[in-house]
Protein 1
Amino acid sequence: MAAPVTPFDRAMSFMRSSFDRIKLLELEKKLLSTPQHILRHDISFERDDGKMMKVHGYRVQFNNARGPYKGGIRYHPAADIDEVKALAALMAVKTAVVNIPFGGAKGGIQIDPKILSSAELERLSRAYMKSIADDIGPDIDVPAPDVNTNPQIMAWMRDEYEKIKNVYAPDLITGKPLSYGGSLGRDKATARGGFFILEQLSKLEAINLREARVAIQGFGNAGSEIAMFLHDAGAQIVAVSDSHGGIYSKVGLDPIRIEKYKRKTGSVSGQYCEGSVCDLKRLKMDETEVISNEDLLTCDCDILIPAALDNVITEKNAKSVKAKIILELANGPVSPEADAILEKRGTIVVPDVLANAGGVTVSYFEWVQGRSGDQWTAEKVDRELRRIMLQSFDDVRSEAKRKNLTYREAAFDVAIGRIVEAMRVRGWTT
Ligand code: GLU
């Protein structure tokens, strides 16, 4: 069989191996390999110079057997229909792994949002909402932020929907600002959920987190927050990177300082380098080296956290990964071929559908609060998130032990088992 080439091929490769293990009927396999709805729209919006710009927008509603479709919206040049389909399938698996009453969806606009002013971003976001408003809703499909989208964008979208439909809909969309129906703890939820899993995993594997050396690829929301949680827990952050490259220090980096410089200069190496010109004396004094994103993945560390792009650990570099544990905070960072290599080498991979599910879990809390009018305290959000993450990890770990599987295989089996069970009781498969 040829190697999987597109994001959807890669997602389906993980799904299919699970279909075979849990012995699904042909119809069930077919239903779980095909999105239920694909919405494609050409979105037109006005640029600041008065000219109209047209971009492709998508919403893929993959499966809603367990509840309303759920998943983020990303703005990215690579967000084509294939990628959005893959991410929608992974969302269906993710909501089932953490057992929250949602299905899976994903949205995308194929654009680099960095070229847009804030006013253009608002017009684009409102135009996108206009195009999907008839097909989503609090009981139908509940969007959220993803790559390059944020609470402000969610606020514009909710406002647009409420105007179009003439309704009050605090439960339409999650990841909103706190002042407009957001939940405490949503901003840090992805990192917090991943941290809870890492804490538990290190206990079970007799790894002392205080002695662990951690490398993090990506210093956006999830990457920078987990760096802070791990730093506070006493772990040593030895490497971080962003799209411009990264830094490594065997004596450990201070994520608070990196965050400060990243805000000031736009990159994690900004305290040492201006463009490609670096202050070698300062680097030497701090025992720090400038590294590439590729170097980061194979650097000397105990825990590797890909928190940026998909498909970064492939058959080309998997053999060189030195970490004992990989926590997938990004969606789809490890290819199926790399996954097989890592398994053979005994690397523990905590898959995306579990590792980064803290985000959608707190989205669920936000949706519950929006529907009930209740407001949870930060303590309650944290407590409930911890409970769900640990329960889900335990479910996956038990399945892995019982059937002698990797965590990824076990997570897919648990999730697909739950989705199929819902499809069967609903009478979809007979
Ligand atoms: N975009 C996030 C993810 O990939 C969150 C989705 C959500 O909250 O619905 O899990």
Protein 2
Amino acid sequence: MKRELESILFDTFGYPSFRGDQLDIIKSVINGDDTFVLMPTGAGKSLCYQLPALYLEGVAIVVSPLISLMTNQVNALKQNGVRAEFINSTLEYSDYKRIEESAISGELDLLYITPEGFQGGRVRDLLDDMDISLFAIDEAHCVSSWGHDFREDYLSLGKIKDDYEDIPIIALTATADKRVRSDILSSLQLDEPNVFISSFERKNIHYKVEAKEQVSKQIEQVLKTHSGECGIIYCQTRNKVDTLTKNLQKKGYHAISYHAGLTSLQREKAQKKFERKDDIVVVATIAFGMGIDKPNVRFVCHNGLPKNIENYYQETGRAGRDGEPSFAYMFYGMDDFVISKSFIDNSEMSQEYREISLSKLKMMLELCELNSCRNKFILNYFGEEAKDECDHCDICSNEVESFDATIHAKKVLSTIYYLNSRFGAGQVVDILLGAKNKKIKDYSHDKLSVYGIGTDLSRSDWNLIIRNLILNEYICYSNPEYRTLGLTKKSGKILKGESEFSVTKKLGVVKSHRKAVKTNNSEFEDYDKELFQVLKDHRYKMAKEKGVPPFVIFSDKTLKDLSIKKPRNESEFLDVYGVGKSKSEKYGSIFLELIRCH
Ligand code: ADP
Ligand code: MG
């Protein structure tokens, strides 16, 4: 069976081998067992039901929560010569009729439907008239009210087991939460399922975190590093989104906004644009998320601190679904923390929930100010063991240095002591740096013995130290509203020399650290860049003509492999990553010609 499955994988999808647990999962489904799959985004969940759908007799029913997700998958499958269709509210009646007929006569391999289909009515009748090979419940976490994407419709999927006892169900999700997981198993009534849980490590994502200094410059640096590539910049508020988009547009970047303040039509347009263009940057609130399965998002940048690690992981996870090296940047500041905290403090949530939210927010800050492996921190947070070091975060690749700051901490604490807890971080730093402004003069702070004793560090270094002191409770906000700094019970330990203090000092902005990132795909990095661009431009034209997103035709990785192998004939073309028989027939001659001319 393995051979047979491998040949379907190669002939239809153009991939040389299975990833991770894919083969075992596929065997489980083919064997008729219920199957539960927990795999991170981009790991390749779709194949786990698409391949059995091709292998087994009958039509596979795929339940997916969003029309946009369905459309993309069905388009991509059709490009690979797979007989797939979807039924949803956007269909014309004549199409509906045609699809219905081919489903009944078994001329389909996969039929995608929305969960409402199970609530009775025409789709439900159709299912009864069909020979069904399996049910695949994609984004299965939507069934759980604990999850972040709960959909009431998903609850009706519990009926599948009652009505179709003998047909195997495969449920798939990327949500790690244990409560969500058990909700899925029980709601769908899975029958002694085979459970496959993959590591959540996103090896191809390089995590990089910096304190905000001049954040617009920092963001621009990211855009320069990734010019011509596609990315997402998350901001905390709609206002920030619109302002940043305007600024970037003025500077000539191809940027668009996305947030819940737009009409649904505007949002849909933005999403389509994002899917179809290769060099576009979406500036968005967290409203931009589900339904994005663009594989070649090369970077996700957080302008401000996410609410918690779950969100951070999910949002950064939208980068690099194609497995190619990708980047997650974050620029954070204490102001984000304070804003989010006051939002939690003033919310209507129960006391318990408030405390949980706050501790989650603190963990997020901790991740930022960590001086050990960020990947490990994230994986441990989700209950997964990890090695002490990875090769895809800024700390492990030595972009961030840890240094002893006990003396500096003492200087900060002394200054706060002299100021009687009546001033904020700005004034403390001004004093340390020996600034000559009006406020210093007015309060005669230039007469203090600590005045000017900190000129060895920059302002941003001092701010970093102060943040770390707050995080570790060596100082606190004596008045949260005015954010004046005060001493705590722990302060004395440093002042008396009983505790040492160290922080991660960020080095200057690293221009491009692509070379520092080791991935399994390094063989793809040495390609003919000019040819790649030619192929990319052509792919864009073809996609536009066909009205599909470019990646549906070929992935970036395929174009790169073409630019390395430069095939000369059809059989060499079939050897290229991501090229199956169907795509070779459709696009082989054009792309071969382009390569020949080049
Ligand atoms: P998920 O649903 O888990 O987020 P997808 O099913 O969308 O991930 O797959 C992510 C990408 O990985 C897609 O571009 C897919 O074609 C690719 N992929 C899946 N399986 C393989 C494989 N065995 N070899 C190469 N690429 C694969
Ligand atoms: Mg998926």
